[in-house]
Request: fold
Amino acid sequence: MNSPRELVAERFSLLCRMHTLLCALPLEHVIETMRPLPVEVMSEAPHFVLGLAIIRGAPVPVINVARLLGIEGGSVTRFITMRAGSRQVAFAVDGVVGVRRLSAESLQELPPLLQDIGADIISSVGTLDAELLVVLRDACVIPESLWERLGVDGTAS
Reply:
């Protein structure tokens, strides 16, 4: 079985920025990037869920990636819609940098000290052009119970 580092290195990633952090998202899960849309706040949602936005006629949960990763600062200028299993989720980010193929030499598995904290969200870390790079897992950051609480039960179109 391939390590997370090998899996990421074999595919292209969409690079985005959250404040000072550079993040990579697996390109095969990216649907589109867009300007931010109005978001309806949902009570009792976790702090990283901004709420729901209507994207292409369907309600889609919007996740502030900076909050998800515990980063302070930054301002949302782009949404990235992603496939999350049979559903969609929108990641709110500071900006989209572009598409890059990541080399295995620039990535490593999540250090043991951080595995308890970020293993659900982060698959590997590394550097790119002397910047810290965090490779996010495949957009499965919303547990089923939260999907139900948000009232989003439709599948991605």
In short: Helices lie at 4-9, 65-68, 112-118, 144-150. DSSP finds four helices and eleven strands in the chain. Confidence is low (pLDDT under 50) at residues 4-9. The longest helix spans residues 112-118.
